Amino acid sequence: MSKLSVEGFPTVEVAADKRLVLAIEQDAGVDILHACGGNARCTTCRVEFVSGEPQQMTQAEKTRLAERGLTGVRLSCQIFCDHDMTVRAISRLEGSGRPDPGRTPEPTIQPPPEWTTK
């Protein structure tokens, strides 16, 4: 079990094989967006790491962030909760104007991960 802290919310314990996007939503109770269903296409599940940022990322995350010119953020749909971390959920349903956060992501990282370094 790892500890997940989302700024402004209580710290929770999360299973090591859980996707960060699901842990933020289901365990921490944060209304994080995931418009594409957690497939590294839309970047609505963006988070900023306060501490515990993983040093590796999926190729899909790396590609999508580069395509969008995004820096200083990570895609929570492409990260496992395999260690303690603190994040800031910057892409939330509240105030987004969207009717819902998006389709619930699968329990496994999609597309199947090809791991690389940041």
DSSP strand tally: 7
Named CATH topology: Ubiquitin-like (UB roll)
Please summarize the sheet with the most strands: 5 strands, mixed
Average predicted local confidence, pLDDT: 97
- Rg, nearest Å: 13 Å
Strand order of the largest sheet: 2-1-6-3-5
Q: What is the top-level CATH class?
A: Alpha Beta
What's the architecture in CATH terms?
A: Roll
Helix content: 10-25%
Report the CATH superfamily: Beta-grasp domain
- Pick out the low-confidence regions: none
Strand/helix succession: EEHEEHEEE
Number of domains: 1
- Estimate what percentage of residues fall within beta strands: 15-25%
Number of helical segments with 4 or more residues: 2
SSE arrangement:
Layout lengths: L1 E5 L5 E3 L5 H8 L18 E6 L4 E3 H10 L5 E2 L9 E5 L25 E3 L1
Parallel strand pairs: 1-6
Antiparallel strand pairs: 1-2, 3-5, 3-6, 4-7
Could you walk me through the main structural features you see in this protein, from its secondary elements to its overall organization?
The chain has 118 residues and is an alpha+beta fold. It has a single domain (2-94), classed as Beta-grasp domain (Ubiquitin-like (UB roll), Roll). The chain is built from two helices and seven strands. The protein has helices spanning 20-27, 59-68, and strands at 2-6, 12-14, 46-51, 56-58, 74-75, 85-89, 115-117. It has a five-stranded mixed sheet with strand order 2-1-6-3-5, with helices on one face. A two-stranded antiparallel ribbon has the order 4-7. It is globular, with a radius of gyration of 13 Å. It starts with a strand and ends with a strand. The model has no long low-confidence stretch (mean pLDDT 97).
